[in-house]
Structure formats: structure tokens, C-alpha cells
Amino acid sequence: MTRAPYRIHKLIQDMMRDPAAAARFATDPQPIFDQYEISPEEAALLDSGSMEAMTGLGVHPNLQMKYLRLRHSGGDGAKLVGAGPLDAYLDRLLER
User: Fold this and answer.
1) What is the pLDDT of residues 56-96, one digit of tens each?
2) Which stretch of 2-6, 14-18, 91-95 has the lowest confidence by average pLDDT?
3) How far is Cα 70 from Cα 80, in angstroms, rounded to an integer?
4) Which residues fall within 8 angstroms of residue 48, CB to CB, at 6 or more apart?
């Protein structure tokens, strides 16, 4: 497994701390990708949200779960508090 660029991990961590930014990211991620200097190739892989893509990028498994929460919050920062869509992550992980 490769190591994700720091800026990808920082993007995920920062979005989890800032509900307003997370809401913007959930509805239109491109400006956030630009802000964190995510390359078009990296953005395409992150947009896919697949386990394979994120693992290929080297995103830490904990941050993969957080990223899926960001992408599936529907722009609702309140959904970032609590368990999140862990079931969806596990379904993808276990290919259910």
C-alpha cells in the first residue's frame, strides 16, 4: 500500500472538524479539491469513493470511513456527528 499525500489526509481531517466546509464539500467537492491542491487524477479516484481507489491512494482506513461520511452527509453537517454510515462502509468492505 502506498502512503496518501498529506494533503488528502489533511483535507479529510479538516472537513470533519468544520461542518460548514463539509457541507460545501458534500455538494460541490471541486473547490475543496482545488484548495488542497488535489490533482485531477486524485480527485477522480476520491470522487469514485471506492475502497480500491482510496486504498490505492494510500488513504488510511480510518480516514476512508470519515471520507465516506463526508460524501454521504448530503451537506448536513449534523450527520457527521455520531456513528455515520458505518454500515455502508462495512458493506463495501465486505462486498455485500
Assistant:
1) 999 999 899 889 888 876 656 555 544 455 666 666 776 76
2) 91-95
3) 7
4) none
Task: Provide the domain count of the chain.
Answer: 1
Domain that holds residue 48: 6-93
pTM of the model: 0.75
87: left (phi over 0), alpha (psi -120 to 50) or beta: alpha
Buried b (16+ CB within 10 A) or exposed e, 25-53: bbeebeebbeebebeeebbebbeeeebeb
CA atoms within 13 A on the CB side of 92: 16
Domain membership flag for residue 70: yes
Any idea which residue has 479538516 for its cell?
Answer: 14
Specify if 1 maps to a domain: no
- Confidence bin at 13 (pLDDT 50/70/90): very high
